[in-house]
Write a structure and sequence with these properties.
This protein has about 450 residues and is mainly α. The protein contains 17 helices and no strands.
């Protein structure tokens, strides 16, 4: 009994500066912050639906998911920077860290400028009404919303580069705080809109994208003038020789990220094109309901990415093995909770969004299966990403990017599976990844990885 109490006490010991101690502290803080974030996101769904209406909300969900693609147009440099900084911090080489950060910001600035310029030139020639299958009566509203949101998110993904620095320093709770603050302010802003204005897609888009941008601009200025002053970016510290390191690893991360974007964001586009924007709302309600589980799991996983980088750099394999074992227990508990959520889904939907939006029970079952597989894959993805052994994941991501959309369309349109077809397609491709990822982990950890398994 005394040993159990001692172990529990040790689990909540946040004073330790060891890798495990930092992880525990961040997990607890992130858990609290994600609880606040989850509540704000759950409140945001019915509030936004009530403010915009079912059709406009479906358009907004599709639009916002497409615009989020911007966050993946950094060629993976954000994640590449995170890994390189983690190595630099582990070696206590602040000069190298400063050069990586300065180079990354220089590359990002050019990417953002090119992205915005390209959009301004191309956007007028795109029929956005057809893209989002929106009513002609709100075409101007949709176009203006797209323009503002695209520009704002482009600037946001530049300012969010500070997140890579924070994560590399193993302070992901700080990143969570910034994200939660942005979501809470967005919720308050939309609540104010709901009370003072009638349905307006433009205003909702403005406040939803502007709030996070303001938060990350302020955070970047404050942090680079305080705790990260020694590694703050500067023009003279930018080094083209470091670009190769960042872009080389970053390009692989970019393809992996882009594959995920195509898989997740395309789901809303497929639904709105084949089934109508109102069905995006139904799908999004089910997605948001189960989103709580990956949110919790990421609380545990987020601090481990850079911790894995540090441990692997120092050749501390036993620490990695013990961490993975503990994560398996968390995955199992959350999977049981998913099953209970599926059973209670109809009851919860009715209380949460009312009886007007009907979510098929089959969709809830499939979404639950999808989340369980998704979490399993993330156990190994965080490890492989942290140590930079992502070539196999890189090739598989290309396969997903090429096949997911046609398979989803096939299941939705030709097999008459409707919303369920989109989720089944995702389950199929995630299921394959759930097989090879543990194999690669085992080979690496047992020092038997060769060829593509070790790249």
């Amino acid at each position: 009994m005394i040993n159990i109490i001692a172990e529990l006490k040790n689990s909540f010991n946040f004073n330790s500066q060891t890798r495990g101690g930092k992880a525990k502290k961040n997990i607890m803080l992130i858990f609290i912050l994600h609880g606040i974030n989850f509540i704000s996101l759950m409140l945001l769904v019915p509030l936004s639906i009530d403010y915009l209406g079912e059709v406009k909300y479906g358009i907004w969900v599709t639009l916002s998911s497409v615009v989020m693609w911007i966050n993946n147009f950094d060629f993976g440099i954000g994640n590449g920077l995170r890994n390189k900084l983690s190595e630099s911090f582990a070696e206590n080489d602040l000069v190298k860290a400063k050069r990586y950060i300065s180079t990354a910001y220089s590359v990002f600035a050019k990417l953002v400028a090119g992205l915005i310029l390209s959009f301004v030139i191309i956007a007028p020639f795109i029929d956005w009404t057809s893209v989002f299958n929106s009513p002609q009566s709100i075409s101007n509203e949709v176009e203006e919303t797209i323009f503002f949101v695209f520009i704002t998110y482009s600037l946001l993904f530049f300012t969010k580069l500070i997140s890579s620095v924070i994560n590399a320093d193993q302070k992901p709770a700080l990143n969570s705080f910034l994200g939660v603050l942005g979501n809470v302010l967005t919720l308050l802003a939309i609540y104010a809109l709901h009370k003072t204005t009638s349905s307006n897609l433009i205003l909702l888009g403005v406040f939803s994208s502007l709030m996070p941008l303001i938060i990350f601009i302020i955070a970047s200025i404050v942090l680079f003038r305080s705790i990260y002053k020694k590694v703050a970016p500067s023009i003279k510290s930018s080094d083209k020789h470091y670009t190769k390191d960042l872009v080389g690893l970053g390009l692989k991360f970019f393809v992996i990220q882009l594959s995920g974007v195509i898989m997740f964001a395309s789901q809303n586009l497929i639904i709105t094109q084949l089934l109508g924007p109102e069905q995006v709302t139904v799908y999004n309600v089910a997605y948001r309901y189960f989103y709580f589980i990956p949110l919790i799991f990421n609380v545990v996983l987020t601090p481990l990415w850079s911790a894995y980088t540090e441990a692997y750099t120092k050749n501390e394999m036993s620490w990695i093995i013990n961490s993975i074992k503990k994560i398996h227990y968390v995955w199992f508990i959350l999977s049981v909770i998913v099953v209970l959520m599926v059973i209670a889904s109809d009851f919860v939907y009715n209380i949460w969004v009312g009886s007007e939006i009907k979510v098929p029970f089959l969709l809830s079952i499939l979404m639950g299966i999808y989340v369980i597989i998704f979490n399993w894959n993330n156990i190994y993805a965080y490890f492989l990403n942290g140590i930079g052994k992502i070539k196999l994941q890189f090739y598989y991501s290309i396969l997903i990017a090429l096949l997911n959309i046609p398979v989803s369309i096939l299941l939705v349109k030709y097999f008459d599976l409707d919303l369920s077809g989109v989720v089944i397609s995702g389950c199929i491709f995630l299921g394959v990844g759930a097989i090879w990822a543990p194999v690669q982990y085992s080979k690496i950890i047992n020092r038997k990885a060769k060829g593509i398994w070790n790249k």
